[in-house]
Design goal:
Elements lengths: L5 E11 L4 E12 L4 E5 L6 H8 L7 E6 L4 H6 L3 E4 L11 H5 L1 H5 L8 H10 L15 H13 L5 E5 L7 H18 L2 E5 L3 H7 L2 E6 L4 E7 L14 H14 L3
Parallel strand pairs: 3-7, 3-8, 5-6, 6-7
Antiparallel strand pairs: 1-2, 1-4, 8-9
Bound molecules: adenosine-5'-triphosphate.
């Protein structure tokens, strides 16, 4: 029986480019234990999006196996085991905050009425009380991302995929959102996989930072982040934090 977190075993995926084959992922194995937070970082083209697409059941590997919450990725997505938040928030502009958060319920044909309390709780959790009826166009970038995070949690997913959710935000807002995400994730108990380009974001949020390398896409190093939780904002300036950031930077340079 596959474990309840995220498990990739010997996963390979290549694409035919113009006359050449691109090995987007080459024999990648990664186990994210249930309830853990893993950050995935690496140069452009190292296969991060490919890995995410495989885990979401949007693509299939040439070799190897992927399990999400103990299920095949498509089954996990269809049964609401999987939650996902993307970089550009991807909200429906004509739907209110509340209606955007409820979108996965509509897609999975679950009753809105029986989730009223969940939605109200999520709105509170991400600090958007009073904005339930607002349209995305009336919100700031940070607020839109918080709607996307709330939406990703509405089915109480066991596994949460976050694809550069704060990539478009400025540094100050990003740090605030990182603190909020940590709190939200800790309350949810979900297994989280975050794709990011931010070393500080990865170290602040993750239990482990997986550093990937490209051509072919593979795991270079896995760096444990033993900082106690909950992590407070002042940790960003601590010597231990800087040491871990330096470790990740070094691994990104291929050492
Ligand atoms: N559908 C596709 N067709 C052809 N090549 C593809 C396809 N999808 C991905 N690739 C190639 O596979 C490699 C990995 O791409 P991927 O998008 O997974 O990288 P990434 O790490 O997410 O990059 P970035 O950080 O820039 O988003 C790249 O060389 C890319 O060109």
């Amino acid at each position: 029986m596959p474990a309840a977190g995220i498990a990739l075993t010997g996963v390979s995926r290549s694409f035919q480019g113009r006359g050449a084959t691109v090995q987007a992922l080459d024999n990648v194995s990664l186990d994210c234990p249930e309830g853990s937070f893993t950050a995935l970082i690496g140069p452009s083209g190292c296969g991060k999006s490919t890995m995410l697409r495989l885990a979401l059941g949007l693509d299939t590997p040439d070799a190897g196996h992927v399990y999400v919450g103990g299920k095949a990725p498509q089954d996990a997505a269809k049964s609401g085991v999987t939650g996902v938040a993307f970089q550009d928030a991807a909200l429906m502009p004509w739907r209110s905050v509340e209606d955007n958060i409820m979108l996965p319920l509509d897609v999975l044909k679950r009753s809105r009425a029986s989730h009223r309390e969940t939605v109200a709780e999520l709105v509170r959790l991400v600090g958007l009380a009073g904005f339930e009826k607002a349209l995305p166009g009336e919100l700031s970038g940070g607020m839109r991302q918080r709607v996307a995070i709330a939406r990703s949690l509405v089915t109480h997913p066991q596994v949460l995929f976050l694809d550069e959710p704060f990539g478009a935000l400025d540094q100050i807002l990003r740090r605030q959102m990182n603190i909020e995400l940590q709190r939200t994730w800790m309350e949810s108990g979900a297994t989280a996989l975050l794709v990011t380009h931010g070393i500080d974001e990865a170290v602040f949020l993750a239990d482990r930072v997986v550093v990937m390398q490209s051509r072919p896409g593979r795991i270079g190093r896995i760096i444990d982040i033993p900082l106690p939780r909950p992590r407070h904002p002042d940790i960003f300036t601590s010597p231990e934090f800087h040491r871990l950031e330096a470790d990740v930077a070094e691994a990104l340079d291929g050492h």
